[in-house]
């Protein structure tokens, strides 16, 4: 394998330990990779508002591709640099059609300015609702474009709900699953981790063959297929392990750090 010029890694279930933290070993390796001139990009389903707590793991600077490709976020300035979203007409058509099929479905929308959620939307208990979030019916959504539309049902089994949403949405948008229990994550057509990463790499003059990408869940599949070397952590979804070129240790065992350590100090410095 040729050493990479760019390392792209998912966060939850991949780089982060099961408790959601960055280990000291992983933080050290990422700093060494960064110091050697290799670009490190986090590519995550998380919205921009969930990034700042781990910003130090990319040496306090760098880029994070958020929302499965919907947002490009600058760590140092805490600014959303780009939004790859969809308009309100399409959002409302999808909301209407999914609600017609699933009575108890609740929606939320991630935007560059923050969260919009309708009453009854079940939130992740590990991430409190921010004070600036807007609570209102999704049908009254207005203003800026939606980066990612979220849908949840508590009545249907997770797999059935995700399959139903994907069938209802069809080719109008891209439905992803990042492992968050029962959460259907809906992006604009063509918006994936791979598409956003490819655009960012092109701006740096970096081709797919110069990229190592790490992931664990089905929403990582486009990115792993695109990258020159796609890595699955040992705890990855079976579909991810089948597609990946290589497998590293689990997220509990700092698998990403272990894979990158084999490049240090000599090989990375020659990139």
From TrEMBL:
GO CC annotation, single: cytosol
Listed Pfam families: Hydrolase_3 (PF08282)
Highest taxon listed in the record's lineage: Bacteria
GO molecular function, one term: phosphatase activity
Protein known as: Haloacid dehalogenase
């Amino acid at each position: 394998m040729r050493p990479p010029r760019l390392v792209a890694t998912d966060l939850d279930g991949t780089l982060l330990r099961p408790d959601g933290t960055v280990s000291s070993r992983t933080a050290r390796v990422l700093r060494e990779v960064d110091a050697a001139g290799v670009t490190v990009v986090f590519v995550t389903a998380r919205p921009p508002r969930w990034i700042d707590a781990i910003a130090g793991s990319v040496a306090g600077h760098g880029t994070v591709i958020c929302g499965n490709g919907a947002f490009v976020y600058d760590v140092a300035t805490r600014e959303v640099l780009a939004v790859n979203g969809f308009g309100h007409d399409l959002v409302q058509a999808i909301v209407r059609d999914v609600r017609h099929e699933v009575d108890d479905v609740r929606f939320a929308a991630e935007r560059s300015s923050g969260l919009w959620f309708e009453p009854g939307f079940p939130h992740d208990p590990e991430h409190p609702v921010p004070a600036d979030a807007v609570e209102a019916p999704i049908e009254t959504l207005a203003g800026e474009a939606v980066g990612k539309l979220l849908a949840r049902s508590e009545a249907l089994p997770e797999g059935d709900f995700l399959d139903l949403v994907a069938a209802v949405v069809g080719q109008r948008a891209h439905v992803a699953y990042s492992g968050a229990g029962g959460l259907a994550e809906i992006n604009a057509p063509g918006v994936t981790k791979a598409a956003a990463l490819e655009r960012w790499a092109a701006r740096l003059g970096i081709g797919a063959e110069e990229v190592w990408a790490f992931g664990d869940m089905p929403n990582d599949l486009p990115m792993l297929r695109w990258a020159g070397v796609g890595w699955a952590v040992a705890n990855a979804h079976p579909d991810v392990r089948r597609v990946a070129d290589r497998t590293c240790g689990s997220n509990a065992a700092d698998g990403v750090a272990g894979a990158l350590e084999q490049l240090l100090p000599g090989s990375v410095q020659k990139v």
